[in-house]
Amino acid sequence: PVNKRQGEPVYAGSHNLGSPLFIKATAVGNATRMAGIANLLEEALQTKPYWAGLAEKWASYFVIVLLLLAVGTGLFWQLYGSGDAWVRAVAVLVVSCPCALSLAAPAALAAAQGALAKIGLLVVKGHALEGLANANALVLDKTGTLTTGDLNLVDIQVVNSQLTQQVALSIAIKLEVGQAHPVAIALLNAEFDSEQGSIESSFIKESPNYLIGCGVHADGWYLGSSKWIKEIFKVEMPVLTAHLGQVILYLAGPQGVAAYFIFEDEAREGVADLIDFAKASNMSVHLISGDDPATVAAWANRFGIPSYRGHMLPEEKLAYVQELQKTNNGKTQVLAVGDGINDAPQLGQADVSVAVGRGAPLAQAGADIILVDASLSSLARGMAHAKFTKRVIGQNLIWAFIYNVGAIPVAMLGMVNPWIAGIGMSLSSLLVTLNAWRLRKI
C-alpha cells in the first residue's frame, strides 16, 4: 500500500481502495506502468521451476559425457579392428538419449498443474508446486480468507446520547463511500432500519481519507478498529466481547467514542479440511489479522489454531512472516493465504503464496497461486497433490538414472545395434511420461 498526495504519479493498473480521486492520464499503451508489469509477469511465467531446472542442468552435463563416451567407444573399437566401430558409437548415442532425464520433471509438472486447475487452483509462477510440497508453516488471514468476508450488520450500539442508531449509520456510510473493504461493503448494503429510510449525513463535508489497516476519517469523525481509535483519542475503549464470527467497528467524533457497529461473518467452506491437513503434515498453523484480538482469538480457538495475533498492520504482517522464516535455523518455508490489500506484502514475502480469487488485484499480483474455488479444501487437495508430484518426479529421475547407467555399458560393448537402442530409449521415455500421466487425476 502506498499513500498518494496531490501531484504525485498514479500508475496504470493501480487498485484504489482509499479516497475518491481525480487523475490525469500522461501515458497510454506500452508506455504505462501496467504494460511494464505485464512484461514482468510474462518473464516470471517463463522462469523454470527448481525441479525442472535441476533436471535440465544434469541433462546438459550428461550430454557432454555421452558425447565423450560415444567418441571413445568408436575410437576404441576402431583401434581393435572392429568393422562396426562407429555403429556401436551411434548405438551409445541413441540408447542413452537424455529424453527420459529431460522429461522427468516437465512432464510431471505439466500434468500436475493441469490437475490443480480442474479443482480451482491456478498456478501462475513456476516454483509454486515445489513451494506447496515443501512448506512447513501455514499463515492465514482471517476476513475474506478463513471467513467468507461477506459481513452483515447485526447491531448498532450508540454511546453518544445525541446520536440515534440511524444517524450513526449514516455517518459511517458517508465515511465508507467509495471503499471496497468487506466492512465498508456491509455498511453500504445495510438496511438496519428501513422504516426510517436513508438519512443523508450533514456531519461529513470533506472527502474521507482511508488509512490502510486502520480505518477512515473525515471532518473529525473516525471509523475503524479499537486500537486505532484509542491511539487517536487517548481514551479507554468500551470492553466488548465479540461472539464467534463477529467483527466490531468503532465510530468516534469530536466528543469521543460515539457508537460501535457489530457485524457477523461465517467460516469459509473447507477451512477445517485445510487446517487438519496442515497439522497432519506437521505444519505449524498461524492466524494473523487486522481485526480485534478477541475476534481473532475466537476464530483461532474454533479451529484449534495455536498461534494467532490481531490488530496487525500490513507491515506487521510482513515482519511476522519474515521472523517466522528465520525460525528452525532458517529452514521454515511459509505458505501464506490472503485476499486483501493488507495481505499483499506478506504474500510477496512468503515462500509460496495463495490469493483467494475474490480478493484484491494487488494481492493476486503478488501471489504464486490463485484460488478460484470457493472452498479451502481445494488448497488441501492441492498440497497433497504437490507432495505426490514431488514423489513422481523423484521416481522419474531415479528411473532415468538407472536406465542410462545400465544401458550405456551394454551399448559400449556392442551388444545392441542402433535400432534396438532406439526402441529402448523410446520405451524409457514412454515409461517416464506414463508415470507423470498419473498426476492428471486428483
Describe the structure.
The chain is an alpha/beta fold and 442 residues long. Helix content is 50%, strand content 14%. It has a 7-stranded mixed β-sheet with strand order 1-13-12-11-2-9-10, sandwiched between helices. Helix 5 packs across helix 15 (377-412). It is elongated, with a radius of gyration of 29 Å.
List the helices and strands and how they pair.
Layout: H1 33-46, H2 50-79, H3 85-95, H4 99-118, E1 121-123, H5 128-134, E2 137-140, H6 142-146, E3 152-158, H7 165-176, H8 182-188, E4 209-211, E5 215-218, E6 221-224, H9 226-233, E7 246-253, E8 256-264, H10 271-280, E9 284-288, H11 293-303, E10 307-309, H12 314-330, E11 334-338, H13 344-349, E12 352-356, H14 361-365, E13 369-371, H15 377-412, H16 418-437
Features:
7-stranded mixed sheet, 6-stranded antiparallel sheet, 16 helices, 50% helix
Secondary structure category: alpha/beta
Strands in their spatial order, largest beta sheet? 1-13-12-11-2-9-10
In percent, how helical is the residue content?
40-55%
Quaternary structure state of the chains depicted: single chain
Largest sheet: 7 strands, mixed
Specify the overall morphology.
Answer: elongated
Task: Count every beta strand, where a strand is a DSSP E run of 2 or more residues.
Answer: 13
Radius of gyration, taken over Cα atoms and rounded to an integer in Å: 29 Å
User: Helix count, per DSSP?
Assistant: 16
Instruction: State the end-to-end CA separation.
Output: 37 Å
- Percent of residues in beta strands: 5-15%
Order of H and E elements: HHHHEHEHEHHEEEHEEHEHEHEHEHEHH
Tell me, rounded to a whole number, the average pLDDT. Answer: 81
Runs in which pLDDT lies below 50 for 5 or more consecutive residues are 193-199
